[in-house]
Amino acid sequence: MTLLLAAAHIKGPHIDWSSFSPFLTLTVGSLVVLMVGLLRAAFVRERVVPLLSLLTLGAAIAFEIARFHHHRQIISGALAVDDLALVLDLIFSVSAIAAVILSWRGPAAQEAGHGEYHALLLLSVLGMAVLVSAQNLVTLFIGIELLSIPLYVLCATHMRREGSLESGFKYLVIGSVGSATLVYGLAMVYGATGSTDFSGIAAKLSQGTFGSGVLGDPLLLTGIAFVVVGFAFKASVAPFHQWTPDVYEGAPTPITGFMATATKAAALGVFLRFFDVAVVSAQDTWAPLISAIAAITIIVGNVGALGQSSLKRLLGYSGVAQAGYMLAGVVVGTQLGIQATVLYLAVYLLMNMAAFAVIVAQQHQLGEAGDDTASLAGLGARRPWLAWPMTISMLALAGIPGTVGFIGKFQLIHALVSGDYTWLAIVLVIGSMISLAYYLRVVAMMWMRSRPAPAGVGGLAPIAGGSPEADSEPSEWPGLATAVPQPEVALVAGVFAAAAVFFGIVPSPLFHLAAHAGHAISGLF
Amino acid sequence: MTLSILIWLPLAISLVAGLAVPRALIGRVTALGSLITVGIAISFVVRFKIGHAGLQFVTDTVWISALGIHYKLGLDGLNVVLVLLTAVLFSTSLIYASFKEWDRPRIFYLWFGLAEAGVLGAFCAQDLALFVAFFDLMLIPFYFLIGMWGTGERIRATTKLVVYTLVGSFFMLVGAIATGVLASSQNGTGLTFVLSSLQHLPLSHASQEWIFLCFAVAFLVKMPLAPFHGWLADGYKSMPIPAVAVFSGILSKVAAYGFLRIVLPLFPYATVHFQTLMLLIALVSIMWGTSLAFTTDDSRLVVAYSSVAQLSFITLGIFSLRSQGAQGAILQMVNHALVTAPLFFIVAALAARAGGSEKLRDMGGIAFRAPVLASLFLIVALATLAMPGSSNFVGEFLILLGVFKSKLAIAAIAFAGVVGAAVYALRVFIRSMHNRVGPNVASREIGFADAVAIVPIVLVILALAFYPQFVLRRSEASVKSTVAATQPVTVAAR
Question: Among all residues of chain A, which has the CA nearest to that of B163?
Fold first, then answer.
């Protein structure tokens, strides 16, 4: 009793509820979804739970938009709710909305249980939001774990398929190695600077108390190197990208889409926070390292994608390459660089989500064989409403004008040339040249090759690759007529592709967002 | 009536026709619609004030304010005739196409409309970034046109073509961005890509040199000139005839036009610096194209390689850096477009009479039963070899005059190319029309479908032969001011 009385007298710290609202929405939403998912009625599980998830994300988006231009530090400076964080939060939320819609009638949510599946997805979004708002090393690590652990599980949710379990396990092992490396690096940075706050680290570094500069302090140098490695694992940056195609291929496709777009945005967001805020004054030290990594990533990703026959692997490697492009924006370390990276993240979401939606639709019809590029043959004639989004997505990824991809690359090259990194711009362009080969191959498959004979089981077997289910599938194109149509999947593909064209012609809103996000990081010119 | 309407009308027509018109009529409706585009283009030419060097009919709105990119369009002496030419050739090709059956016609005409919009946009663009965007955009439709409606190894051919040209375009993209960024930083102004502003922001010599090379690669691949022509044979072999007519006729000219519009005014130092190199490339390319044109057995490739030689002449004229040479280049762009398109139509007509083969050895003796076709072919062939009296003669004469004034030795060698043109043009004519009748030849007179496409163009060729001044008067003022940009540099170099 006395304890309660005492508690009543303690004055809690001031809580800025309005700035806290996006985080709170996601937390409460995920708990509610988890609880509602326990109800037995199929209607509740299959309809209400996804709807609640959408509502949560919608509310989160509303709060994010409402908090625009209100820069606040909350939880005693552990989190910053500024425009950079909010723009990235928008990207996560939109990506998650697409993932929820795409997995609505898919097998993964069914097998794992809708409540768990959606709750984990929301938690992962929360982790991303925490990560990109993080202002000190501890929240950074909490964010990265909160984003990763649900994803390890989500990758394995398509439980009846060996590949999904393999994917989840692989991601768990490699992700843990990445996290361990990261936390080791963070500890070293703390040891060297004596501060966990980004601003504290930055202040310490700019004081120049490190003898002959930062280079003179091996502890800090090793720490930064370990942090780079840890982040590189998450952002699938070469040479730490090997898990990406395997995990992407095995995970349920909506989750792959979510990982490819949102996780990448989160990882690059934290790259921006850490390198362009905390250790920006040591730029001379880390810039050569990261620019080399960016160049390697661009080449490795693009060359790796060349021989892929699985669409998800192809997009995985293409995502590796794109991470390299965006890392180039981080390296520059200017306002323009940050803006270009954020712009490209938004652009990247639009381009990729359309493609993943088309893969979901293909897999719905053809099973696992729908992931094979060969399954796209003749799609332009058969299902043009899927072929057009895929075409737009591929052309946008290749950087064709009239799509957002062109705008994104334009701004990145602009940032690189202005920041005296013309050589990296050339690498980026060479990477784009290589990428033409595989993006155009997909387009050619859809429009220029005719569909294999419908009765050709023999023609389908090699397509099915190593998937035993598809090989044993007695029918040709399983369920061509029986599959329940999924208009919502085609809708997602169409909306994202339309946006990819619209913002390619009217890019000013995206530039506007990116500019605000960039201004959130002060102290750069 | 703004230029925007002219540019976007073709796309709008094919979109509306694709959505609202029954399949069987799409071709006719699009072809008729393209005549409206021609009408609008004519109205611009009529209202164009001759003798002004500056831009007319300017549209200028901000497109991307963050980057200083404007949606700026305008006509001057360099592009006014080329815009009309584009409308005419696309219309001709669409008329030609509308008499043929196409699988999935909606998409076919959609890509055609987008291609025309892209080309018109590239010709009218007065902003560097906008030009780059249109330059890439106009290529994409041809990727699909070849890949979906082409013949032979179409997918390989189309991939090769697109990869070659887009690789060039990416270099140009870097060059264009660098131009904007460096011009503003070296002169301490805000970022801009508007051409007229960039002209007043001189770049340092070192920057000019590498940026020049970026642009040159893009343009030389697109034309193509000899060491950059790897995509040419496969691409032209596989393209459907209406597509190859506009591709060879118009798209190659955008690249040549790009030298005049962008490279000469923005990089005058580098232009003079690399003048000899460019002239030598053009010279080698003339020899290369000509010799291939009179050795190949494939009638379509004769036309293709002759284009290489002709475009090399145009490049020669531009890099003579004399106003006569550049004037001749513009006239020759028009002339070449007007002969190459009907040549491709005629090749298709010949193949139809020679059992479907485009090989010269399968042809022969076609003139015997097709005197009208033969005389149309003869007119076009004589124009191709620049017979005195044709407009092509005037064009080549001006080009060589310009080169004579700047580099005598190169002009002397280039004359050999003129002779070569006579050899390949007459060879193709004689081997197909005369000689022994080929084994599978079933000659017949030109049909209505071919005639409506070929005859109007031949009439234009004849008209231009009497009055090449139509082109020259309009281009004169602008060409002089463009070439003048490089003159102080030339003088200083001495």
Answer: A436
